[in-house]
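Long-time lurker, first post.

We've been arguing in lab meeting about whether nicotinamide-adenine-dinucleotide would sit comfortably in this protein at all. Half the group thinks yes, half thinks no, and nobody has a model to point at. So I'm putting the question to the forum: if I give you the sequence and the SMILES, can you give me back a predicted structure of the complex? Inputs are below. Any interpretation is welcome too.
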Amino acid sequence: MTAVVTRIQVSGDRPYDVLVGRALEDELPALIEGAAQAAVLFSAPLRARAEQIAEAAGVPALLIEVPDAERGKTVEVAAMCWDKLGDNNFTRTDVVVGVGGGAVTDLAGFVAAGWLRGVRWVPCSTSLLGMVDAAVGGKTGVNIAAGKNLVGAFHPPAGVLCDLDALGTLPADDLLAGLAEVIKCGFIADPAILDLIEGDPAAVVDPESPVLRELVERAIRVKAEVVGVDLKESGLREILNYGHTLGHAIEKREKYTWKHGHAVSVGLIFASALSHLSGRLPVDVFERHRAILSLVGLPTSYAPEAWPELLSAMRVDKKARAATLRFVVLDELAKPGILAGPDEALLERAYAEVAR
Ligand SMILES: NC(=O)c1ccc[n+]([C@@H]2O[C@H](COP(=O)([O-])OP(=O)(O)OC[C@H]3O[C@@H](n4cnc5c(N)ncnc54)[C@H](O)[C@@H]3O)[C@@H](O)[C@H]2O)c1
Ligand SMILES: O=C(O)C(=O)C[C@@H](O)[C@H](O)[C@H](O)COP(=O)(O)O
Ligand SMILES: [Zn+2]
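Top reply:
Settle the argument with this. Predicted structure of the protein with nicotinamide-adenine-dinucleotide, as tokens:
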């Protein structure tokens, strides 16, 4: 039987496809046509897959190993990669390939965006979170001391490969992290996602299950529709940041040792509490957040004493405008909006829902 490949188009000035399927490495040569060489960025756990992808590229490939997870998402690591491209005479027709989870593909995209002011790149996503979110939409970047993803560029890829075979080796906790972004998509745009998870929570953590594939494709479609009309986050794209204002603050406080998806999970409780306590979101939808995130085993609470530090970290969130904090909230299921400048008492009451 021929394996089915699903192609989801992302529109925009330079449209591209997100491919979901199995054994997708043979799709790479078409995406990098005209390149004389490829730089394949990867971290240690993905060495074997990176070598396989480098082999399939059909052009000489420079393998560049970077530190794993958030340790690789730094300006210093990006500079190390640029030095290697320079040493190997990378020109504008050459291509950067990222093989890994969201951390490696965010870095690879940033390296590509900076090199010669922008060369082609292809994320070969290997984590659930990467497939449904990080590899799609052209947000690339690194973390700095002041906060998460504060330096980066919008630089859409030439195409995205989401090879479901990779999920077979993904640690269970990282699969869970990806589910947080899938659940986010359920609340902001596609409630069928929530029904699927609530209907069969065991299937959603089985890398072989058709339910997981359906969730991957649904979440990608949500993201593709949004970034296809608002690449640079001038409006609509902000909805993808639901749960992230507090989530990023937690990641910073934890010195990036918490998984992004776990921090977003706590952030979703906070954002839904803010939505409800500001009189916008009915209580049942608010409570559904805690229920579904707990059902799959994601965290829903965080340290009570952390609030002052988190509030200060949230002030450098990209959605803030001058001193005004802005949050993505829900008015009802699948109806996101913006809450600008909530008073501190309201923020504290929402945090009490997290700190319990
Ligand atoms: N650019 C965007 O739009 C966007 C969207 C969402 C998240 N992100 C970023 O993505 C990052 C999180 O991504 P993540 O959850 O994939 O974490 P990650 O990239 O840190 O990967 C988590 C761990 O899983 C390992 N791993 C990945 N795939 C594997 C596989 N198939 N087999 C074995 N091990 C594997 C990695 O080596 C790492 O140790 C964060 O930095 C976040 O800010 C970016
Ligand atoms: O693609 C987006 O836009 C998102 O907000 C998706 C988020 O899940 C993702 O974590 C993104 O990297 C956050 O972007 P940031 O601009 O807040 O750093
Ligand atoms: Zn995210």
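For your lab meeting: The pocket of zinc ion (ligand 3) is lined by residues 133, 181, 244, 260, 264 (CB under 6 Å). The chain has two domains: 6-169, 172-354. Whichever side wins, do check it experimentally.
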